[in-house]
Amino acid sequence: MLENHNSMHLPSRFAHQFTTDYLTSSPVSLFTNPLELKSSIHNFHRTSSNLYDVAINSIHPNYDMGIDSPPSYETIINQLTDTWENKIDFDSVFPNFNINYSSTEVAIDIEIPVPIPNPTSSQLSTTSNPQPTYTTQSYNFSPVYGDGLIDAANAVATAIGLPRFSNVPDNSDIYTWGLDAISVPEVWTQGYTGEDVVVAVIDSGVDFTHPDLDDNIWINTGEIFGDGIDNDGNGYIDDLIGWDFVGNDYNPMDEETHGTHVAGIIAAEANDYGMVGVAYNAKIMPIRVFDANGRGTQGDIIKGIIYAADNGADVINLSLTTGGYSPEVESAVKYATERGAIVVMAAGNDGGEKPVYPAALATDWGIAVGAIDINYNVTDFSNRAGSDSSLYYVVAPGQDIYSTTPNDTYGFLSGTSMATPYVSGVAALMLSANPDLTPADIRQIIAATAIG
User: Fold this and answer.
1) Catalytic annotation, residues
2) 373-397 pLDDT, tens per residue?
3) I want to staple 204 with a disulfide (CB 3.0 to 4.6 A). Which of 232, 258, 265, 352 is the partner?
4) Burial 104-127 (b: 16+ CB within 10 A, else e)
5) What band does 139 get if pLDDT is binned at 50, 70 and 90?
6) Residues 6+ apart with CB under 8 A from 442
7) CB within 8 Å of 56: residues ≥ 6 apart
8) 0.70 surpassed by pTM
9) Which residue among 91, 113, 138 closes a domain?
């Protein structure tokens, strides 16, 4: 667990955040036991260690997530001396630094976070190529939190070839802490808000009438609603805003809660009402694959992924698990990736040593996501990254997350399901800054700029 938060190298504003009485002593949830309460009130079906025993056509949505211990000080110093030429490594591990690009020699001023034995800063100067690179994972991979905490300010800046965006004041509370934890406001101040990016939410549906979501619902412009004709020839009649694979119709309304909550984290509107999503100008493509009891089939999940890819989704959010390995699910994720969509997948909520499927596919396709709490500790329920450093795995806020719920309401939920849309939202911000990014670019940048 990331219990010693002073040794986790977060943006400078977090140092004060960790010492405030508010965060260390105030309640961070309206629920004494949010997981148990969710189950009793909403009849949620969460993944568990015996999910594999469930019939393959009774897949459950994923509701929880987490991370673990930070690298030792010695490991950090080794990384510093071994990979100084990669600007991204500096930005990931030492966010408080300045780089002078004025000549062919790059001077780097680094403030090294505590604990250290002597001075708190050092200067290195050498010859280097100042252009950031992100073609390989050239940094330390933790079996607990993988590549680290996603950093929106660094990821989006790197996507357009710039140093990390400057910090802005942290004004978060229990409702908005997740945005500041991954430095989203820093991106907004640069004018990137997810505009012209489509994020498919493959889930229990979305309440597309919610006042914090209704203006951010994707519209299929090739379809004429109500004429009973498949105008765009995609195989679905009147799919104006998405598709319901449970009812096999054009109405992907959320009859549970999960999908609407996920959608709000990604793209709730900046309308001075309720809350704000990570990419508040992105469009949500609602795809319903879970029924009112949170149950669905693997076949519908596969159809949902293919529908999203065929209809122009740039990002596909999978806050779900499918149990064991399925070549059909892998083929669908591969298909979507090859069509240009980055697939973001929840690691699972078993508290296990590695992600379950489909997140385990992130060695080859997409990104796996684990969850942290407000104190930057990995949650108990989150599946960790595991020992395979070829896995693209980051962590994001996933416990006691406030977001939209059906019927013009809001609520707190926990899970890797909640962490995953934070990463999907950051991917949308990256694409709004640089629409030419490929899925490979996106996952490499996110991993390379994560705070480990």
Assistant:
1) 203, 258, 417
2) 999 999 999 999 999 999 999 999 9
3) 258
4) eebebebebbeeeeeeeeeeeeee
5) low
6) 159, 342, 367, 427, 430, 431
7) 298, 323, 326
8) yes
9) 138
